[in-house]
Every structure is written in structure tokens, then in C-alpha cells.
């Protein structure tokens, strides 16, 4: 079992190991992650990593769930700033603000999230933690969407939590499009945004 008695010294060492693991994942991907490489990058021993995280799966669970959580919440925080800057927002403004910029950093983060979900198939601990984080991130997004619903009174006829799940699925499409782009067959993102907005309006916007 991993050591869970986190003194300030242990916390600092764990943070050092987590930072090294993130660097290794960025460089080699999840499948290429080796505990020995993490130990060398963090300047610690392999047994110490096992002491604090249990095993490779435990280390992956800790790091990947944190990365996933931070990425999603950063998306929500950015969307909140953009939405609050609008003077007279409408439903049509909602989806463009969740359009994730297609820069290298965001693409890398989306790819890490895809790998995280793939890795959870054979990692029960990661799958359980990922499920917990999904609940937390959906609720985090729903809080923002409650604010949206107040400003868009009467324009949406579904709950914020259901809308949060729809938007998470919408955001996932950008990650899939990264894979298509690598194969030279990307979907036009403007068309994708407009299609999802059309589906959204048909499903949850009150018909006049």
C-alpha cells in the first residue's frame, strides 16, 4: 500500500515525482512511461515511488486524474470569462465559447485526456478516480451553466447538469478531430460547431 502520511517533506517529494511523471508523459505518452525514467528525472529511487504511489498504475492514476481535472476546469473558467464579457448573450453564443483553440498546448492536453480514458480500461483504480473526477467536473461545469441559465432566462428548457454532459461530449469531438487531423482528414471545425449548435437548439431550446 502507498504511504499516505503526507508530511511537508513527503508532499514536496510527491510533487517532484508528479512533475517528473507529467514531463515523461508529455515526452513519451502513457504507454511509454517507465517508472525508472520518472525516478531518474525526479532524482529519487524507484522504491520511493512505489512507497508513495503503490505501483505504476497508482502513479498514473494520481497524475492523469489531476491533469484531466485541471484541463477541464481551465476550459470552464475560460468560457465563464468569455460569456461574462458579453453584454447581451444568447444561446448561439454558448457553443463558440467552448470551442477549444487548436494550438499545440491544447492539442497535447486533449491527447493526454484521450490516453487517460484509454488507460483506464485496464486500470481499475484509474477508472474509479476518473469517474469521481467526471462527476466533479460535470458539477463544476453545471455551476457555470446555472449562471448562464439565469442570464438566458427562458432560452433553455433542460437542466444545467444535462447541458453540462452535452457540452462535455461536444468538447470531446475536438479531441477526436485531432486524430483525424494527424491523418490528414480533419473535419472543418466551423461546420462542427454549427452542427452541434443546431442539434442543441433542436433538442433543448423552447420552440416558438
TrEMBL record:
Q: Does the keyword Phosphoprotein apply?
A: no
Q: Which residues form the HTH tetR-type domain?
A: 11-71
Q: Which Pfam families match?
A: TetR_N
What residue intervals traverse the membrane?
A: none
What GO terms are given for molecular function?
A: DNA-binding transcription factor activity; transcription cis-regulatory region binding
Record keywords: DNA-binding, Transcription, Transcription regulation
Lineage in the entry?
unclassified sequences, metagenomes, ecological metagenomes
Instruction: Please indicate if the UniProt record lists Transcription as a keyword.
Output: yes
Report the protein name in the record.
Unannotated protein
* InterPro entries in the cross-refs: Homeodomain-like_sf, HTH-type_TetR-like_transc_reg, HTH_TetR
Which SUPFAM superfamilies does the annotation name?
A: Homeodomain-like
Q: Which organism was this protein described from?
A: freshwater metagenome
Q: Which PANTHER family match?
A: HTH-TYPE TRANSCRIPTIONAL REGULATOR BETI, HTH-TYPE TRANSCRIPTIONAL REGULATOR RUTR
Amino acid at each position: 500500500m502507498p504511504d499516505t502520511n503526507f508530511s511537508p517533506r513527503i508532499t514536496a517529494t510527491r510533487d517532484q515525482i508528479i512533475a517528473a511523471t507529467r514531463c515523461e508523459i508529455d515526452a513519451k505518452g502513457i504507454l511509454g512511461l517507465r517508472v525508472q525514467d520518472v525516478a531518474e528525472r525526479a532524482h529519487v529511487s524507484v522504491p520511493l515511488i512505489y512507497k508513495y504511489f503503490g505501483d505504476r498504475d497508482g502513479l498514473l492514476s494520481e497524475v492523469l486524474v489531476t491533469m484531466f481535472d485541471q484541463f477541464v476546469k481551465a476550459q470552464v473558467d475560460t468560457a465563464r470569462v468569455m460569456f461574462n464579457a458579453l453584454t447581451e448573450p444568447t444561446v448561439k453564443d454558448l457553443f463558440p465559447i467552448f470551442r477549444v483553440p487548436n494550438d499545440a498546448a491544447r492539442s497535447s492536453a486533449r491527447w493526454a485526456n484521450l490516453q487517460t480514458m484509454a488507460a483506464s480500461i485496464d486500470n481499475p483504480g484509474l477508472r474509479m478516480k476518473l469517474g469521481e473526477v467526471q462527476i466533479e467536473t460535470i458539477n463544476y461545469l453545471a455551476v457555470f451553466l446555472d449562471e448562464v441559465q439565469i442570464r438566458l432566462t427562458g432560452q433553455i428548457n433542460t437542466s444545467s447538469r444535462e447541458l453540462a454532459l452535452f457540452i462535455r461530449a461536444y468538447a470531446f469531438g475536438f479531441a477526436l478531430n485531432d486524430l483525424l487531423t494527424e491523418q490528414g482528414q480533419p473535419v472543418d471545425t466551423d461546420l462542427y460547431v454549427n452542427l452541434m449548435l443546431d442539434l442543441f437548439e433542436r433538442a433543448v431550446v423552447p420552440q416558438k
